[in-house]
Design goal:
Elements: E1 4-9, H1 15-25, E2 29-33, E3 36-41, H2 43-52, E4 60-67, H3 71-79, E5 95-100, H4 107-126, E6 140-145, E7 148-154, H5 176-186, E8 193-196, H6 203-212, H7 233-246, E9 254-259, H8 262-275, E10 281-285, E11 298-302, H9 313-326, E12 333-339, H10 344-348, E13 354-360, E14 363-370
Parallel strand pairs: 5-6, 8-9, 8-11, 9-10, 11-12
Antiparallel strand pairs: 1-3, 1-4, 2-3, 4-7, 6-7, 12-14, 13-14
C-alpha cells in the first residue's frame, strides 16, 4: 500500500497549526479544513503522524467519501469502498460516528446499515458468510455532515492528547493538545525561560519542555494501528528510532511553575518525571499575588482558574486584576493567557497585542497575547 489518505481531527482554532506541523513532518499533500486536516502518505507517515503530532486529536484512515440522503445510498456507498484493503477475515470492526445537518440523523440506524454494508463487501471478497471478529480491532468511524459521508478507520486508539504522562490531573485539566498549541503560538525555543503561575498538573510546562527538546509526544505510548495486519512492526520501530534521534539533549530550556495548592505542585513534578522532562521542569507553592517574572527575557503562558471550572466569575475577575498588576511587560517579558471571559482585557487592565480564538473542549476561549 503506497498511499493512504488520512484525516486528522483537531480542536477548532488549531487547524492551521496542525497543518504546518504535518508539512514539517514531511507530508506533501496537506489541507486544513474546519476541525480537521486532510493529508496522505505511506505507512511510515501514518506511524509518524501518530508518534509525532502535538496538535491533532487522532489519526484516521480516510477510506472514502460520498453523498447520501437515503439509507439505500448510505448502504451502497459504504459497500463500494475497499474495506478488504484494511480488514482481514477474522478482524473486529465496531462502528461509531455522528451526523450533523443531514437527512440521515439516526445514529443507531446509520451504525447498523454501515456494519451490514461492510459485512456484505467482505463476504464477496473473502467468500465466507460468518465473521468471528476475534482478531485485531479496526474501529470504524463515520461522519455525516450536510449529507456528505466520510468513512474512516481509527489508527490512534486513545486520543493523541493522552501522551501517557498524565495519569492524574487536577480538577480543571487543560487538554495537552491545546497546551501544545498555546506553546506553539507563543514560540518555544531550546533556550526559552518559561513560567506558569497557575501550573495545575503541569501540562503547559511539560508540553513546552517536550517542544523545546523536540521530543515526540507519542514516544511513550501504544497506538491501535500497531495491531493492524497491513502495517509491519518494522515501520513502528523505524519511526520511533527516527523520533528518538531528533531529541535535543542538554538544552538550556527552563520551566518554572507555581500553584497555591501543594497537591498541584506535587502533581506537576510527578507528571514531568513520567514525561521524562523533570530535568527542565520545576514547581513550587506560590500565589499569583507574589508572582514576578524575574528574567528580563522570559515567557509566561498560563490558564488561570475561571468560573466555569474552579472559581466563581467574580473571583476570577479579581484574579485578572491581580495578574494585570503583577505581569510586568518590557525587557523581553511576554505573557500568553487563555480565558473564556469575553471581558478579560477590561479586568486585566490592558488590551492584548493580539488575540487568537481557541476551544478548550467545547468552551470557546481567547488566547490573549502580550508581547510588545
Amino acid at each position: 500500500m503506497s498511499k493512504i489518505n488520512l484525516v486528522a481531527p483537531c480542536l477548532f482554532g488549531v487547524e492551521s497549526i496542525a497543518a504546518d506541523e504535518f508539512r514539517r513532518m514531511g507530508f506533501n499533500e496537506v489541507n486544513a479544513e474546519n476541525g480537521r486536516v486532510l493529508l496522505s502518505g505511506d505507512e511510515n507517515m501514518l506511524a509518524r503522524a501518530n508518534i509525532c503530532s502535538r496538535f491533532a486529536e487522532r489519526i484516521l484512515i480516510n477510506v472514502g467519501e460520498f453523498e447520501a440522503t437515503t439509507f439505500t445510498e448510505l448502504f451502497d456507498g459504504v459497500k463500494a469502498l475497499p474495506w478488504e484493503n484494511f480488514i482481514g477475515r477474522d478482524d473486529a470492526f465496531p462502528v461509531n460516528g455522528w451526523s450533523i445537518n443531514s437527512q440521515l440523523f439516526s445514529i443507531p440506524d446509520c451504525q447498523s446499515i454501515i456494519k451490514k454494508a461492510i459485512v456484505e463487501r467482505l463476504k464477496l471478497k473473502y467468500k465466507i458468510n460468518i465473521f468471528p471478529e476475534t482478531g485485531s480491532e479496526y474501529k470504524i468511524r463515520f461522519s455525516i455532515h450536510k449529507n456528505v459521508v466520510t468513512m474512516m478507520i481509527d489508527t490512534s486508539g486513545e486520543g493523541l492528547h493522552k501522551r501517557g504522562y498524565r495519569r492524574n490531573s487536577n480538577d480543571a485539566p487543560l487538554k495537552e493538545t491545546l497546551a501544545a498549541s498555546m506553546c506553539d503560538l507563543a514560540r518555544i525555543y531550546p533556550d526559552t525561560q518559561l513560567f506558569d503561575p497557575f501550573c495545575g498538573s503541569g501540562t503547559i510546562l511539560i508540553e513546552a519542555a517536550l517542544m523545546a527538546t523536540k521530543t515526540a509526544p507519542g514516544l511513550r505510548r501504544f497506538f491501535a494501528a500497531e495491531r493492524f495486519s497491513f502495517l509491519d512492526d518494522k515501520i513502528w520501530r523505524e519511526e520511533r528510532t527516527r523520533a528518538q534521534d531528533l531529541i535535543l539533549k542538554n538544552v538550556e530550556f527552563k520551566a518554572q511553575g507555581f500553584d497555591i495548592d501543594p497537591a498541584c505542585v506535587e502533581l506537576t513534578l510527578a507528571n514531568a518525571k513520567k514525561a521524562g522532562v523533570e530535568k527542565y521542569v520545576k514547581a513550587a507553592i506560590g500565589d499569583v499575588k507574589d508572582f514576578k517574572a524575574p528574567e528580563k527575557r522570559c515567557l509566561t503562558i498560563t490558564n488561570p482558574p475561571y468560573g466555569e471550572r474552579l472559581l466563581d466569575i467574580k473571583a476570577a475577575e479579581e484574579l485578572y486584576k491581580v495578574m494585570g498588576r503583577q505581569f510586568e511587560q518590557g525587557e523581553g517579558r511576554k505573557y500568553y493567557v487563555i480565558s473564556p471571559h469575553d471581558e478579560f482585557e477590561k479586568y486585566y487592565g490592558k488590551e492584548a497585542d493580539k488575540r487568537r480564538k481557541l476551544y478548550n473542549g467545547m468552551i470557546k476561549c481567547q488566547l490573549f497575547m502580550y508581547f510588545k
